[in-house]
Write a structure and sequence with these properties.
- The structure is a homodimer of 332-residue chains.
- Chain A is an alpha/beta fold.
- Chain A has helices spanning 14-19, 29-34, 38-43, 46-51, 63-69, 95-105, 123-142, 160-171, 189-199, 217-225, 235-241, 280-288, 292-319, 325-328; strands at 3-4, 24-27, 56-59, 74-75, 80-83, 90-93, 109-111, 149-154, 177-180, 208-211, 230-231, 244-245, 252-253.
- In chain A, the strands form three sheets. In chain A, strands 1-2-3-7-8-9-10-11 form an eight-stranded parallel beta sheet. A three-stranded antiparallel beta sheet of chain A has the order 4-5-6.
- In chain A, α8 (160-171) links the parallel β8 and β9 (177-180).
- In chain A, α11 (235-241) runs antiparallel to α13 (292-319) and α12 (280-288) crosses α13 (292-319).
- The radius of gyration of chain A is 20 Å and the shape is globular.
- The two termini of chain A are 18 Å apart.
- The relative contact order of chain A is 0.10.
- The interface between A and B is large, with 39 and 39 residues.
Chain lengths: 332, 332
Amino acid sequence: MPVGTQGSVKTVSSEELEALGFELILANTYHLSLRPGSDLVERLGGLHGFMGWRGGILTDSGGYQVMSLSKMRTITDEGVRFKSHLDGSEMFLTPERSIEIQAELGVDISMMLDECPPYPCSREDALAAMNRTHLWAPRNLAARRDGQAVFGIVQGGVHEDLRRESAAFMSELPFDGMAIGGVSVGEPTEMQYPVVQLTAPLLPRDKVRYLMGVGHPQDILHAVSCGIDLFDCVLPTRMARHHCLYTLEGRANMLNLKWAKHNGPVDAGSVFPSTERYSAAYLRHLFKAGEPLGARLASLHNLAFYARLMAEIREGVELGTWAGLMERYARA
Amino acid sequence: MPVGTQGSVKTVSSEELEALGFELILANTYHLSLRPGSDLVERLGGLHGFMGWRGGILTDSGGYQVMSLSKMRTITDEGVRFKSHLDGSEMFLTPERSIEIQAELGVDISMMLDECPPYPCSREDALAAMNRTHLWAPRNLAARRDGQAVFGIVQGGVHEDLRRESAAFMSELPFDGMAIGGVSVGEPTEMQYPVVQLTAPLLPRDKVRYLMGVGHPQDILHAVSCGIDLFDCVLPTRMARHHCLYTLEGRANMLNLKWAKHNGPVDAGSVFPSTERYSAAYLRHLFKAGEPLGARLASLHNLAFYARLMAEIREGVELGTWAGLMERYARA
């Protein structure tokens, strides 16, 4: 899932996302509920109509952004009281309200409100966040509207026993899919991999498995090898705005002088259709000159790179050849 | 001509310009000669190849930007000495050098280096600028490479006798087209119209007539009625970045609260193909949220509006019905 935080995958149009082959995107409940407001989006035909997107939409619960963006938040068993980062107005987010907002947004997949502790975090805090997540899980489910799909989230930090407990607890509940939360929150890769490796096989075999906020191509491939199906990540578009292009040879920094006179594509193997039209030297010029087209072309390039990665994974899984992709993407 | 100052019409791709039906764009010699440098652009296949643009390109001479952007400039009969606004390095622009830079850029139409006085300007200064422009005209022509098309520029400020003298002088020289310069430099419309009305009919009937830097739809229609063929203007894209959309009912400011709940296009009559997909409320949200897609969609809308204006003018001239357009665009 490309990430459209505020109802827009930055610089990219819905037509372009469709042309790249994406079928599902992620949008942020926290941002959209503050601006323009989920009630307004509902009156305007839901987020699909609002942003002119004909594919599927998954929204996060808003919990993660409340924690990372808002000052002055208080979390209790009831919910999270916080002040908007936009105008300081006081808000109160509960599991019921999060599910209601996502229903108003009219998305295809809603995420349960959980407590996602930051990294680093003590075992005590990881346990408390897991317990509160478990307390909230049935309330999220009870708030569902008819036909609203809600995914559960396993917490437990980097602690094997907590992850086992959380996976077992969540697996018993009638969620429509299951996510691993609390990874990609700042921990090093060597701490992320064991959590994924341990937790993924504990999730129900008949439900979609979603690893939240991951990640680098290597991280995705590792997670797929553990049985994960679904990913969201800001990297393709964020890296693009920071003038970095994904290639099979590694990430290319477009400000690097080596591209200044390069009259060919950065990545001759790119599947982005305009690759032949715009040279590396032109792309570098756009970034150096502060032209907005630079971030846009780079975003399209990176999204095409990720779309191909996911297509090759799907094909490789079907044909049983996907392990070869580890080497193909080793430098990406 | 949409304006691609630094080799990019801001936020818009070359594919999109082609799809909108534009056949000629303007780029800025001053900006491109400083960054990335005309010698580099030449080595990379010229500006067409550099920016992946398959239509025509006209460049200005660089003189106007030297005057408006550069501090510490000294103008003599030889040329203009100035410091780059990017790094303060000292540069010297002469008629010969301007024509050479434009040849290196490999464009289809080069503009002669003239002296364009600012507004307001005394009659004495307008006379001096005109005389220096006349002094430079033959030097521009002598510097042409084989096959390089160069347009002359008539100066003379708001003074009828000077405009007559300049038009007569320039008309004698073997330029490939003729421009009216020194308008749209800050003077009120009621001072601009008489200059265009006076000067346009004095230009050779068998050469293209180009009114530099104009303008609003009304200004373009007035100028066409005086016999002008060609225009460049930053308004469609600059207005778009300032959240203003051109419509036949007048300019729409997308920050206006009246659009907040408007679940339909800003301009139902727009010829921009994505008009039905993105509502006014969504466009307003993009601007309010600082999403770069807002300026991009607005730019495409405004360019489509101008492309239609010019298409309707061409059609109206051929059919002899074009005077009706004055009313059609009276509020635009």
